[in-house]
Design a protein that fits this description.
There is one protein chain. This protein is an all-beta fold. The protein has no helices and 11 strands. The strands form 2 sheets. Strands 2, 4, 5, 6, 9, 10 and 11 form a 7-stranded mixed β-sheet that branches. Strands 1-3-8-7 form a 4-stranded antiparallel β-sheet, with no helix packed on it. It is globular, with a radius of gyration of 13 Å. It starts with a strand and ends with a strand.
Length: 115
């Protein structure tokens, strides 16, 4: 059973950068067919796909966030990381990591952007 656990700061100030890490257990992030995603949810915008990194390391980003985000991975630690720069209050959301092919979700982590 694959398990995902998000970690990161709960509070970020506007204009700063946000970094969230998803630690994966019970399976390797390089295993075939796995696609590792970031999803966020807010009352204003609902559920929003942020981006993904595949088991081969290819990355895909939401067009609306592409200019200020990146997703990377550390295969030695079996984890992947979302970096989002120049955050605004509109980036306030619960951020989830998700494995797409089998539908595994992390529990989510609240990120609030506020001064």
């Amino acid at each position: 059973q694959v398990q995902l656990q998000e970690s990161g700061p709960g509070l970020v100030k506007p204009s700063q950068a946000l970094s969230l890490t998803c630690i994966v257990s019970g399976g390797s992030i390089t295993d075939n067919y796995y696609s590792w995603n970031w999803i966020r949810q807010s009352p204003e915008n609902g559920l929003e796909w942020v981006g993904a990194i595949t088991m081969a390391g290819s990355t895909y980003y939401s067009p609306s966030l592409k200019s200020r985000m990146s997703i990377s991975r550390d295969t030695s630690k079996n984890q992947f990381t979302l970096q989002l720069s120049s955050v605004t209050p509109e980036d306030t959301a619960v951020y989830y990591c998700k494995e797409n092919s089998r539908g595994y979700w992390g529990q989510g982590t609240q990120v609030t952007v506020s001064s």
